[in-house]
User: What shape does this take?
Amino acid sequence: MTEPTQIKVNVNLPPELEAGVFASFATIWRDNDGFVLDFAVTTAPGIPSVDETGEGFVGVQARVVSRVRIPAGQAWEFMRALNSQLGAWEAEHGKPPTAE
Assistant: This one.
């Protein structure tokens, strides 16, 4: 028997997760174990505020709707896959609108 040349993963999605969740933005941070992707949704309109230095800002409340942890070694595969999908989306739909 020869050594396998490919790994094929059969991913199953439970029915209760098929709809997914809406997230209006994501944050990414890291720790010693890898990377953490927090997908969040705003929960209230922004409130104009001033910080301790007198600088104005708009404070926005948000709630994390999903947290995904990936090992550091997987982060590069994730970025390659995301870049590939972004390229395919752009080829199909054109340039996306810029974020405000």
Observations:
- The chain has a mean pLDDT of 92.
- Helices lie at 72-93.
- Strands lie at 25-31, 34-42, 47-50, 56-59, 62-71.
- DSSP finds one helix and five strands in the chain.
